[in-house]
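Morning!

This is the sequence you dropped in the shared folder:
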Amino acid sequence: MKKWYLAVLGLFFIVLLFGAPFYKAGYDAGLFEVRDLGNRGEEAQFYEGTPIDDALNTLVRFKKSLTDLYTDFMPGYYETVFAYGKARDTLNAPTSSLYADARANVAKKPAEEPAPATDTLTADIGDPTAPTPEVPEEPAEPEVPLDPREEVVSVSSTLLSGSGVHRYYRIEIEFADGFQSSFLDTAVNLTDKSKEARVKVQAKKLNKIAEATPEDVNFYFMLLTRMQDTDYYEDIIVGEESTLQYADQFLSLLDERITAQKWELGSVRDRIERVYLTDHHWSTYGSWLGFCQLCKMICPDHEPVALGEAIDFPESRFYGSAARTCMTLDLWDPFVVYDYDLGKYSCSPVWRFEQQVKKLSKAKYVTPDVNIYAVFFPEVYVVNYPENNTGRNLLVIGDSYTQGFVELLGSAFDTTVAFYYTHYAGMNYHDVIEEYGITDVLFQQFSDRIMFDLYGDDQLSAIVLD
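The structure's back. Tokens below.
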């Protein structure tokens, strides 16, 4: 009996040991798909300022590669984690609801009581019958009523988990107009010294690209803001520090020929309405607002297309990267797209809005292993609007925010060419500018990547500038 037991146990461990590399090899070769929990991409390069930084960071990256291999590609890993997450959320739902209500009630600000009246002190003021000189009253500051949509009645945050470079929180919030929301957000897990050092290095990399740009080509930059890059972040997740100072520092370090701005997230209500609840990524509504903001900077005479009709897919759920990482299955985003009515244009590879709507309408995605956003918006590299005749061609150097956005942004130009960060290696900057007659360059990445190179994948140094 013991021999059979040991044989079965040994076989089990052999399957686990060799199954993951087998799945990884098959995935890389395109032979089959692996159900993705979004674990890949978390980089942890913490060693800076020591004599053996390179060696230590090499060990860290090796450890990370093994961790990724034996999680994402472990046979049965997804099914096990998904079943556990679903059972956990089901069992904890009543307690979590009571706990969330209790946290929200505790966090509600009590009404301020009027200050108690102070006793009047009597002093020797001379002749009491003398007239009292009149002191002109200063006009009172007019009270500006708070917008109920923006006024936070209660807010609380709960730490869910931590990874190499992030801490993940769940936020429960209520506004004065009665609107309530739950969403997930992150805190960057780096020291202040490391943040500042990385900001300086990254700014130099971006400046180098701008300096290599021909004089007759305009260079623009949009910093795609996260909630942590705002001044209200510390009021939402108490105990974590805002990275606003690093965002401002980054912009201040940019070359004077770069026209730069931050994507607007002026309030926590903006964060909820413009960013996916379970992800750091702008929503389709948020991307349209980003388009309108960019038009003011790059082509102020261009009239942006209208938002258009909203189309939703009620049978499907979008689980963002934060939800997948934390296995928060009771919180997801409805997936909504907008029919901008962009007119006549062509894409390479071929992409048609109407076909994608029909495709997704027939599908039903309810598990976190499918990124619906990427399914609907695959990478598009060239967009042509033959009837625009603006005389301007745009090169976009960006990350996943460019997916589903380049078609919209391209409506303001004749031709738009997109390079995603995974394709920077081998990109000859001058050849691309010359081949497509580029008149304008837009560099856009979200702050985790461009300011801190948090995932170790920015690849800016791989762009050929000579």
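Headline: The chain has two domains: 2-75, 190-462.

More detail when I'm at my desk.
O.
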